[in-house]
Write a structure and sequence with these properties.
Order of helices and strands: EEEEEEEEEEE
Shape: elongated
Strand content: over 45%
Number of helices: 0
């Protein structure tokens, strides 16, 4: 049996994002060449079914702000792959997490899929972003 395809993508330094900008990952560890960090986004280079485990810490200087993170595959929202929370106090912290299944097809032109995590709301600071990608089929 071959090596299981697993990747961990991490950002441990704060990143301030406007609405529509994506979290960029600075560090990664992967079990093989099927997954890689491409300009801070996650590139999957082999077709299959993947489980994505995502966890982000969000904060805002403005009380009552809503933090929403949305997973996109090749620039398109992945249905149900989102997390949202209201930050009740200024500089408060909220944990945003979700799991999602994504299919990477072999007939997608290049055969690759790029996954991004988009800040859907106003100015937000993301820290301690941790995403694990595991090929399940």
């Amino acid at each position: 049996m071959g090596i299981k395809t697993v990747g961990r993508f991490v950002r441990t330094t704060p990143l301030t994002l406007a609405a529509g900008e994506n979290v960029t990952f600075l560090n990664n560890a992967t079990s093989n060449c099927a997954l890689e960090n491409q300009n801070g986004q996650i590139l999957i280079k082999k077709p299959g079914l993947y489980m994505i485990y995502a966890n982000f810490i969000a904060t805002s200087a403005t009380a009552g702000s809503t933090a929403t993170i949305q997973l996109q595959e090749n620039g398109v929202n992945v249905p149900g792959a989102t997390a949202s929370a209201t930050i009740d106090v200024a500089n408060g912290i909220e944990n945003l997490s979700f799991n999602a299944i994504a299919t990477v097809k072999s007939n997608c032109g290049s055969g690759f899929a790029v996954f991004s995590f988009i800040n859907e709301d106003g100015d937000m600071i993301y820290n301690n972003a941790n995403v694990i990608v595991e090929k399940i089929a």
